[in-house]
Write a structure and sequence with these properties.
Layout lengths: L9 E6 L2 E6 L9 H7 L2 H24 L5 E2 L6 H12 L8 E2 L2 H30 L5 E3 L4 E5 L2 E10 L5 E15 L5 E8 L5 E5 L2 E7 L11 H6 L3 E10 L4 E10 L4 E2 L1 E3 L3 E3 L5 E3 L7 E3 L9
Parallel strand pairs: 6-14
Antiparallel strand pairs: 1-2, 3-4, 5-7, 6-7, 7-11, 8-9, 8-10, 8-12, 12-13, 15-18, 16-17
């Protein structure tokens, strides 16, 4: 049985649907709090922010409670009055009814106002950074396919821009990750760049079929689903370009596991024309594939 290191510094990472446990990696929240703030979900972000807000006010309310005369016109009396006064002070609202009336009260309120102004500045910055962070809305087809195209055997992946605006100078890179065994009987994951027939699109707006020619130099030469499964093959497609609406650089990435690749299939056509010669694109057919030959492996 393999002995794992101490679980003290263990992190769980999800990658391509798999759960991987990383041991011995130092994880200090306060040393990388900005990363956690940017990568957490919006719901978790607001829950943590609300919890910190309540905790700070409880802390300062406790400090105010040490001096029963620290705050004038305290209402309601006691701890909860001090809590509501702390909320007003931390938010720099100051309605005017309750106010510090002792030196101790002024000292605590000064510390709280400084804390509140600093906290508001940091939270505002993080929220703006999260909101303004560019995100691509690129549709990736469910299945990469192989088929004959213009007399060549190709690996094809269909993508589309769901915003239907222009992504200028879009570029694509396709890589194959596969498990290999060395002559020393050690195993490692090898990354292979797959050349594309066209790796750039000047005005990516609607759809884009990305082709890799399967020739004798291609790792997909004589490849089939069984061999791809044995080597635990995965395709990584990366897209990058400039959104002309916001002038920001967009990046998107999609990973296809070996069981998503379909051999000897082709995509169903999503384009059509009506009687008025208007062009239509039906994205409900975006993931539909059709067997090209009788040798096509069954789709799952």
């Amino acid at each position: 049985m393999t002995k794992h290191p101490s679980r003290k510094n263990t992190q769980k990472v999800e990658f391509d649907g798999r759960q991987i446990y990383a041991h011995g990696v130092s994880s200090h929240f306060w040393h990388d709090s900005y990363h956690y703030a940017m990568t957490s979900s919006w719901s978790l972000f607001f829950v943590v922010f609300a919890a910190m807000f309540v905790a700070l006010n409880l802390f300062f309310a406790t400090l105010y409670s040490f001096d029963s005369h620290a705050v004038a016109n305290l209402y309601p009396g006691g701890f909860w009055g001090a809590f509501f006064f702390s909320v007003e002070t931390l938010a720099t609202v100051g309605y005017g009814d309750m106010h510090p009336q002792t030196v101790y009260g002024h000292i605590v309120s000064t510390i709280e106002i400084f804390t509140g102004m600093s906290g508001i500045a940091m939270i505002t910055g993080v929220m703006f950074a999260r909101f303004s962070r560019p995100k691509a809305k690129i549709m990736f087809t469910r299945h990469p396919i192989t088929y004959r195209h213009n007399g060549e055997q190709v690996l094809c992946i269909r993508i589309a821009n769901s915003r239907l605006n222009v992504i200028a100078e879009a570029s694509a890179r396709l890589r194959l990750l596969r498990l290999e065994t060395t002559t020393e009987n050690s195993r490692f994951i090898r990354i292979i760049d797959l050349p594309l027939k066209r790796d750039q699109h000047p005005m990516f707006s609607l759809g884009w079929n990305i082709f890799h020619v399967i020739d004798e130099q291609s790792p997909f030469y004589h490849m089939n689903a069984k061999l791809l499964e044995q080597m635990q093959g995965r395709l990584i497609l990366s897209i990058e370009g400039v959104d002309e609406t916001t002038s920001q650089t967009l990046r998107a990435r999609h990973i296809y596991s070996w069981d998503k690749v379909r051999f000897n299939y082709r995509y169903k056509d999503i384009t059509s024309s009506d009687e008025q010669m208007n062009n239509h694109m039906d994205y409900t057919l975006f993931d539909e594939i059709i067997a090209e030959t009788d040798e096509a492996e069954p789709a799952k």
